[in-house]
Structure formats: structure tokens, C-alpha cells
Amino acid sequence: MAFDATRKAIHEVQRFLDIRMGVLGAVSMGAIVFFINSDYGLFSASIAASKQAVYTFFFGALFVKMAENIAVHRVRRISAVLMGGIIPAILTTALTYCLHAFKGTPEPFYSTIPTLVLGTISFSIWSYLKHRSAYR
Q: E strands of the chain, at which residues?
């Protein structure tokens, strides 16, 4: 009985978050931000990396799902890939910069560049793949 409730709760969360991509993004982006800020010491780099990892887990997972939903609901492939790549990338880049700038990351601009570049590329690829699988 408890197992069914847990499984149902996980299924509901997965409607809005792509957990697997959230974990993958959190680990990779956290590591990148750690190395960007490593010149400022282990403590500062760890704090910046932790902020990025937690943010990416939740918002990255949410924006991946957003890109997927945009791509699946657009019939034209070019529109699906562009909108599914650009909208989540703009949102996550702006939020990432705010997170780092307002919370004392030593290099907020440079800590945001990987999100801009990798986010745009990965959201676009994800949108393309999801659109292709939906409209075969």
C-alpha cells in the first residue's frame, strides 16, 4: 500500500520534472562552476558549486520538461526546436545569473556562461529528439 502511494507520488513529480536529467545536469554544472570558482578557495568554490547543483537539479529538470512539452506540442519541427531550445535557455540563464550575482558567487558572469551555452545546446537537442519521436 505504501509502495503504491510512493510510486504514484513519483509519477506525479515526473509530470513536471525530468529527474534523470536533473541529476545529470546538477553533477555536471556543479563541477563546472566549482572549477570556475576554484581560484577563490575550496569553501567559496564549494558554495558556488552547491548552489548551482541544487538549482540545476530542480530548475534544470523543470526546464527540460518544459522544452519537451513545447517540442511535442508544436507541429513544425523548426519552431519546436527553436522555441523548445530558446525559451528554457533564456529563463535558466537569467535565473542562474541572479542566483550567483545575489548570493555572493566570486565569478557570477563566468559561472553563468556554461548555463547559457550548454543549456541552449542541450534544450535544443532535447526538443529535436522529443519532437522527432512524437511526429514519426
A: none
Contact assessment for residue 116 and residue 89, using Cβ atoms and an 8 Å cutoff: yes
**Distance of alpha carbon 39 from alpha carbon 100, whole angstroms:** 16
pLDDT in tens, 70-108: 999 988 999 999 999 999 999 999 999 998 898 888 999
- Sequence-distant (6+) residues with CB within 8 A of 134 are 71, 72
Long-range contact pairs involving 15-20 (C-beta distance under 8 Å, separation at least 24): 15/65, 16/62, 16/65, 17/58, 17/61, 17/62, 17/65, 18/61, 18/64, 18/65, 18/68, 19/61
What are the residue boundaries of the structural domains of the chain, listed by start? 2-134
pTM value surpassing 0.85: no
